Amino acid sequence: MKTIGIIGCGNLGLSLSKGFLVNPNFRILANRRNPISVSLDRFEWASVEDIIEKSDIVILALKPYAIDDFFAQNGQIITSRNIPWVSVVSGLTYKKFLLFLSLASFPFVRAMPNTAAEVSESMTALSFHDVNSDQKTDVQKLFKLIGNALEINEDLMEAATIIGACGIAYVLRFMRAMIQGGVEVGFDAKTATEIVSQTVKGAAQLIIENKTHPEEEIDKVTTPKGCTIVGLNTMEHSGFSSALIKGIVESYRKIEN
What we know:
single chain; alpha/beta; Rossmann fold; ProC C-terminal domain-like fold; 2 domains; 8-stranded mixed β-sheet; 8 strands; 52% helix
């Protein structure tokens, strides 16, 4: 049984735990400032020292503002074992990680999953540094338990954060608007939510399975003088696509600063 350590086990860490524990061969050792009651088999709270000593892979999921203090307090013990460290901390690059530890190299993976890990539907971007083939395979298998995992260059990690992690919120806000529209045209909120949820799931599955561009699938449901094209054009005249693109770009500028 492999042991996965999660340091800074907040909302994202708990989502990851639930996804990883689908595999009966994993157990989780987790740490957070104020432990809470968690009803998960093979999950337990532990000290940072125990996590580093007993884990096969350590996932660092602290808030960015807590990183400096964490490395100041734990730098020596981190380097005591040559195990992969996987950072899901926004902005913690491999270069910064090495500077904190005063090292020239160390097994390190930058990862950006999203909270859909909880239901095994995360999109995780991965960037590998100084890991051997077995370590790389173990990390890839781990994150494929919670959805899809894609290897990218580290210089694209901030962009992946905006599209994949922040993107959950963007999609949910779009769904909320669709539900509100459904209520306005006659459905109760529960029924509208069920219809919208399955519609969004189906739309995504069309793109995934057919490997088509969204516009190709849009063309299949827009007929001349039909209600679909009227709705689409009205949204575009109100700035739907441009507002979404602008929001993504502004989020990217924020994370870059």
